[in-house]
Amino acid sequence: MSKLRIDVDLDKIRYNTRFLVDHLRPRGITVTGVTKAVCGHPEIANAMLEGGATGLADARISNIMRMHDAGISCSISLIRTPMLSQVAQVLDNCDVSFNTEMDIIASLAIEALGKNITHNIILMVEMGDMRDGILPEHLESTVSQILRMEGISLKWIGANFACLGHVAPSAGAMELLSSLAADTELASGPALETVSGGGSASLPWALGKGATGKINNLRLGEAILLGTDPVSGYAIDGLYTDVFTLWAEVIETKTKSNPNPLQMIYPIPSMQCVTLDSPSNTRSILAIGLQDTDAAGLIFPAGVTFVGATSDHIVVENTDCLLRPGGEVKLKLNYSALSRGMAAPDVAKVFHGDGALVDCTAANTDRRYSKRK
Ligand SMILES: *Cc1c(COP(=O)(O)O)cnc(C)c1O
Questions:
Q1: What residues in the chain have per-residue pLDDT under 50?
Q2: Which one-letter DSSP state was computed for residue 27?
Q3: Which range of residues forms the domain containing residue 338?
Q4: 372 in a domain, yes or no?
Q5: pTM of the prediction?
């Protein structure tokens, strides 16, 4: 068996979820566990639910199908606006989807009517992240169009922060979202079930002291999985930052002191960083590459320095430890490295954790986590 694997500590996922659920409950905020970075792995989804998440969300239908196939029966929202080409599949596999485009919403409504079902819609409002979202000034007209359609039902409104823009939401932005929710309720009659105030980037606001207004949900991925804040990259106090560990095997270690003069080719591909003035010339190769993870998102152990990566190799320099072929290197992953690693077929996923929720008073706040996101 290949040693290339990601160890997953399910107890720490349960713990991180429980910690966030317990701290957000007094603020009137529920937690939806976001599983897209782990491809909807049912073990991880179940650990989030056992930790108190009230629902799940994923960006891909295939991941949602995987969770349903594994017997997960809670509501799972599709948190990327559906492709027009996948409307029927969305209706068959998701009871709720995030939406921002009238043509797609109309198509969902027509097909849902044909199937004699009602599909739930979450409208995403653009609040400055400049990724997906209806402009606030268009919300009212969108809502009134939706209310006239059969086959769909408006359940939530929500916003994204710091997905594309890396800017944490301000209290003012949250107040605006709250007042848009109030306006929507005035127009739509029945109260909106949920007003979702963003992802992990909204935690500093949600765990603060300001009024939460109408916001009663967050959709959390990174904080649960990595214990980090997506904006700063820092560990969040009280959460485990070592849920996932990537292990890669060493396949070469050599001292390459006097390489034959190289004919440099310009421009140098960005990932091949050729260090000519390096302090050490002992290099090792790990049997993992860009097809398996985001090499720039790995955190290496002390004494091991990243040199470069190709599709199937990661080259490192090692100063104070000798990496022998057959040995293993333990790596930490950021969100991007994790999501690629979890999707890579050659990286085994090994689950640990006996189901006991670890003691909530023994939180490990690992402050050594690198700032790199
Ligand atoms: C990925 C995603 C989230 C979760 O974000 P985290 O920063 O991982 O908590 C929430 N909402 C939407 C729409 C997303 O795409």
A1: 270-277, 357-373
A2: G
A3: 244-352
A4: no
A5: 0.89
